[in-house]
Amino acid sequence: MSWRAALRGREAEIAGKKLTVGFDGFTDLIARPLRRAAADGAPAQPFDTIREFGEFLVSKAEKSCSVELRVEARQLGGNLPFLSRGAGGLGLDVRCIGMLGAGAAEEPFRNMPCTLYPFAPSGQSTCLEFRDGKVMLAADCALPGDAWQLVLDATDGRAPALFDGADLLALVNWSELSFAHGLWEKTLASLGAADKTRFAFFDLCDVSRKTEEQIDAVLRLIGGFAQKRTAVLSLNENEALTVSAAVLGGVREIERIAAAVRRKYGVDEVLVHTVRDSLLLTARGLTRLPTDFVPAPKISTGAGDNFNAASCFAAVLGLNDRDRLAFANDFAHFYIQFGFNPTLEELYESRQLC
């Protein structure tokens, strides 16, 4: 059975599925660094790849340089907004507890198809886009008070119930928020009786700046969630390799990394997505599918979050492991190719993915 056949006619069920997501939120400046500015009727020439841009920067070592940016958009950013917008657009009932504004939602987030609980101003980031990926530049985020108390105040004390009552809770961007670990601990403490029919979904984001002890601690924390919910950890290739180098002895094969995370930390399910393929490892076994590479992406910022949004959707709808991966791949491919989140109907009808 394909995911299309598995989802047809289930709109009412989809609308009844509850997701609660925490805790980040950024306003992104999307830009392409230019190798050459426009001149004499010739168009500007952006750097094509991250390697090309990196080699340019290395050539300026012990000197200085300036880089012109072609600004393409100013928009919502961060793992929570991208994941939530994708999942809400598919029809799920999504509640967002995030850095979406101080008291009221900031303009970039107001049209998200979700219920918003903003507890702090958004962070600011610049996303440098290239054909083969992106480079994120973000300032550290400081809060004006105790993080959990801000969350409680923003939700009128209902945050524990919102997480405990969700069919899937998603905690994202652990690495970029200095206060994230404490919020994740508070979230775990707020969960009531164990219910493995429901899910806890995690995206650490790029952990390159974290110590071995910090990475070990957060993976053990996710293992703690696995005592209450079916815990799903999503990693991209860079994150998987960094985790392996820190706490798994430097294993390089993606499937072995996934297996080691499950074995050492008790994480129920591990997703790994790369530009070439994606895999899902569960107690049922390993599923691996190729991805359709987009040679000229409309946008890459948010691609992993859209993969995660679709993964959350597929999990709560009970799709089998192969269909979960196929649906996530197709949803992310559509976003990268066309630059916007598809609805479920648009994904059904997309000829490019049939």
Kindly describe this structure.
The protein has 354 residues and is of the alpha/beta class. It contains 13 helices and 14 strands. The strands form 2 sheets. Strands 6-5-1-9-10-11-12-13-14 form a 9-stranded mixed sheet, sandwiched between helices. Strands 2, 3, 4, 7 and 8 form a 5-stranded mixed sheet that branches. Helix 11 (303-316) runs antiparallel to helix 12. The longest helix has 18 residues, at 321-338. The radius of gyration is 20 Å and the shape is globular. It starts with a helix and ends in a 5-residue tail after the last helix. The mean pLDDT is 93.
Q: What is this structure's SSE topology?
A:
Blueprint: H1 3-7, H2 11-15, E1 18-23, E2 26-36, E3 45-46, H3 50-59, E4 69-77, H4 79-89, E5 93-98, E6 115-118, E7 123-130, E8 133-138, H5 147-154, H6 159-164, E9 168-172, H7 180-190, E10 199-203, H8 212-225, E11 230-236, H9 237-247, H10 254-265, E12 269-273, E13 277-282, E14 285-290, H11 303-316, H12 321-338, H13 344-349
Parallel strand pairs: 1-5, 1-9, 2-7, 5-6, 9-10, 10-11, 11-12
Antiparallel strand pairs: 2-3, 2-4, 7-8, 12-13, 13-14
Helix pairs in contact: 4-11, 7-8, 11-12
